[in-house]
Amino acid sequence: MSEKVNAAVRIAPQTTEFREYDMPEIEDDAALLKVEVAGICGTDVKFYSKPPFEGPCIMGHENIGYIAKAGKTFQKRRGLKEGDLVFAEHYVGCMDCEFCHAGEYRLCMFTDWRKFPEGLRFGYTLAERAPHLFGGFAEYMYLPWNSILHKVPDGLSPELAGVVTPMANGIQWALFDCGVGYDSRVLIQGPGQQGLCNTIASKQAGASLIVVTGTSKDVKRLNVAKNLGADVVINVEEEDPLEKIMEVTSGEGMDVALDCTAGAGTIPVLLGIEALKRKGGTLQIQGEDVPDFPNFPLGKIGNKYITVKAARGHNFLSCELALKQLNSDRFDIGQITTHKFGLKDTHSAINAVGGSGEVIHVSLMPWS
Ligand SMILES: [Zn+2]
Ligand SMILES: [Zn+2]
After folding, report:
1. Which pLDDT tens digit goes with each residue over 309-350?
2. Of 99, 125, 288, 318, which one is least surrounded by beta carbons within 10 A?
3. pTM over 0.90
4. Ligand in nearest proximity to the CA of 167
């Protein structure tokens, strides 16, 4: 009898079924990942309730694990061997387009699962597709030749390395996309794992003023934001955020406004536009959940000469820098990794994210 791999499979909205798959044969140019930590983010919460496509799917797109088996060609090409701890990006690139060559796998057609279903993306691929193990909510994950892998630095635990995705997004959005640097004034809306990692990235880059907003359920998270370097935190249910921002900037406003909220609709965009400085600020938007925006203040974007940037994951370099950042002891990342669940508790683990204000980052650990 062949060896089996346990996986938590999303089969319908809010429904997980445990299935066993055959341990896959590993081709010469491929490898097998023993999943240690699958981080859970707001996207999982959204897609667990409203699956983006029909059919069974092993979710889990923020995956850290040990190389359990590796083909000879894989080892030679990738410089990785069995026993190495790696972060596997959820993008699996074509490796041949202009974006892949630039390390911008997030923009490759092959990773655009909405428009290109033949593409492959960990956590977003039908479980029917052989060899099935294309998500982190499972004991093992199959790594094809074109997986994007980062070696986890020595000394960094799998659980802390599990924060790499939000950290990479923080570096990508705040630094690379919005140009946060020395003396920048940054507004970060939403103190979840994403907002907190943008706080760390902005602080590390030299921002002189970091303002983080949240609601009454975020009291603990706003506190953590302060500990990680926010200069001002605002509970928008208790204080007028725009008034407060103008007060702490002597009426000048912010250089950059980042939206790290979930399900807040058009509000963060409107506040961001108002809170930005008189001319030349940068507004980062999420957009996915706000397909229509009646009365969008386009005139103000023009008048204030605002640059609008869409948040779209992370590139190769931001992942490398994120792992370095997590491995430094400059910021206490332990304040972010608040909850751990085993594979059997996948359903509760997903629903825990965005549930209570106590939860910041959830690690699904299939072997615990
Ligand atoms: Zn995610
Ligand atoms: Zn490509």
Report:
1. 999 999 999 999 999 999 998 999 999 999 999 999 999 999
2. 288
3. yes
4. 1
